[in-house]
Design brief:
Shape: elongated
CATH superfamily of the largest domain: Tetracycline Repressor, domain 2
CATH architecture of the largest domain: Orthogonal Bundle
Number of domains: 2
Radius of gyration: 21 Å
Helix content: 55-70%
Order of helices and strands: HHHHHHHHHH
Largest sheet: none
Number of strands: 0
Distance between the termini: 79 Å
């Protein structure tokens, strides 16, 4: 009996690029969409552009992601997952050091993927596309909430709702990053120094008293 092969099956809608699993095709399409957005801007994101970038037939985008809207959601899901990972800090250092490292990781992510970051927090996305993102955006914010709660437990941050304190932190760092990405920083050459000093200012403002 001839051996069964599991490595040569391809989706007929995926064009010349050989893929063995649907998940591989989906990942390749999201990779291509990210490249199109970062290189050409969000306005250039079309099914045909992404399909051409990925080397698949346009129908592959519909088969695997449901079309342009599904593609956008998939890109943003990956973005929020990436932000969560960038802001996460493993156990070990003191809570304030972990908060500091988380803030620096946040900025690194934004600078590495500025167009995706802008899309994640931009106001032009339709509400129906925002709703499916909650399982990805909420965990990204929860990373910061948990770090604040840990710092409170260590007595390094004042008492209060950790979610509200985390929102204050995020509002501040997001504002600074947005100014830098849009070229609105009055002293662009000092952006990193300003950002690091901002984090220290935030931590001093949240310090426990008494």
């Amino acid at each position: 009996m001839p051996a069964r092969s599991s490595s040569t099956t391809t989706d007929p809608d995926d064009g010349p690029t050989r893929r063995t699993r649907s998940a591989d095709v989906r990942d390749a399409l999201v990779d291509a969409a990210v490249r199109v957005i970062e290189r050409d801007g969000f306005a250039a994101l079309t099914v045909r552009a992404v399909a051409a970038e990925a080397g698949v037939a346009p129908m592959g985008v519909y088969n695997h992601l449901g079309g342009k809207d599904g593609l956008i959601v998939a890109v943003l899901e990956r973005g929020f997952d990436g932000l969560r990972d960038a802001a996460s800090v493993g156990p070990g250092p003191a809570a304030l050091d972990r908060l500091r490292a988380s803030g620096l990781g946040y900025r690194r992510f934004a600078l590495a993927q500025p167009a995706i970051y802008g899309l994640m927090f931009g106001g032009g996305l339709a509400p129906e596309l925002r709703e499916p993102l909650a399982p990805h955006s909420k965990p990204a914010f929860a990373v910061l909430v948990d770090l604040v709660a840990a710092a409170q437990h260590e007595g390094a941050v004042r008492a209060g709702d950790p979610s509200l304190l985390a929102l204050q932190i995020w509002s501040s760092v997001h504002g600074a990053v947005s100014l830098e990405l849009t070229g609105s920083m009055p002293t662009p050459g000092a952006a990193e120094t300003v950002y690091r000093e901002l984090i220290e200012t935030i931590l001093r403002g949240l310090a426990a008293t008494g």
